[in-house]
Amino acid sequence: MQNEKTLNIDEILRIMVHRYPFLMIDKVVEIDPGKTIKAIKNVTFNEPYFQGHFPEKPVMPGVMILEAMAQAGAILVNQSFGNPDDFFYLGGIDNARFRKPVIPGDQLIIEMEILKKKLNAFKVRGECHVYDTKVCQAEFMAVMEKGTK
Hints:
Layout: E1 5-7, H1 9-15, E2 27-32, E3 36-42, H2 62-81, E4 87-98, E5 107-118, E6 121-130, E7 133-145
Antiparallel strand pairs: 1-2, 2-3, 3-5, 4-7, 5-6, 6-7
């Protein structure tokens, strides 16, 4: 993955419609437009879902990991083919696999790649790692609606 571009939180907020507590991307550390992205989600104990998701042994819900992956994919597609006013709808998730729990203190490294683009529809695939351990993988379908934000 080439380090052609990075995005800090201010730049991410200009692209994404999500806000706390649902913005799941803290930083984009690498992006190769039209190809790949590497993003970070710092998992802290202060996340609201930890209050009710196994409070005695907090584990990041799998759906939140998938949401972080979908958001990274949306940033990649936006930076590759869109503009800041475009809006993304999730169309589907395939082949999702969870391999190890993600807990407070972990740094989720999200790597996504574009598999296919057809008109305004996209298919992306990705993996999440904590350190060198793969914790999740999945494929996503999304549709981009031009200039609706």
